[in-house]
């Protein structure tokens, strides 16, 4: 099963419900991929970065990511990223 990391920003200026955004991603991938909070030393098939504002300043260089990095700064972007992740994982032959 594919592995998708979730990275939060520091939360200094949140302008939307970041936990809701995370829930959207996790729900969309629940039967398609394993999700976890991103950790160093783990290889991810994709990474969702949940930023609280449009700066989306959370670093990602410390993570090993084979595929796309999705930067999310709104609920709408979380929904778009969830759809893109589902498509991407299906194209790669993830367990559906």
Keywords:
about 100 residues; alpha/beta; 4-stranded parallel beta sheet; about 30% helix
What does this structure look like?
The protein is of the alpha/beta class and 96 residues long. It has a single domain (2-91), classed as Rossmann fold. It is built from two helices and six strands, in the order βαβββββα. The strands form two sheets. It has a four-stranded parallel β-sheet, with helices on one face. Helix 1 packs parallel to helix 2 (75-91). The longest helix is centred in the last third of the chain and has 17 residues, at 75-91. The N and C termini lie close together (9 Å). The model has no long low-confidence stretch (mean pLDDT 93).
The rough form would be described as globular
State the total count of DSSP E strands.
6
**Radius of gyration in whole Å, from Cα?**
12 Å
Helix content: 25-40%
Output the number of helix runs.
2
Largest sheet: 4 strands, parallel
What's the SSE pattern? EHEEEEEH
Kindly, what is the distance between the CA atoms of the first and last residues, rounded to a whole number of angstroms? 9 Å
Percentage of residues in DSSP E strands: 25-35%
Biggest sheet, spatial arrangement of strands: 2-1-4-6
Kindly give the count of domains: 1
Output the CATH topology.
Answer: Rossmann fold
Highest CATH level, the class? Alpha Beta
Helix vs. strand class: alpha/beta
Low-confidence spans: pLDDT under 50, at least 5 residues?
A: none
Mean pLDDT: 93
CATH architecture: 3-Layer(aba) Sandwich
* Oligomeric composition of the shown chains: single chain
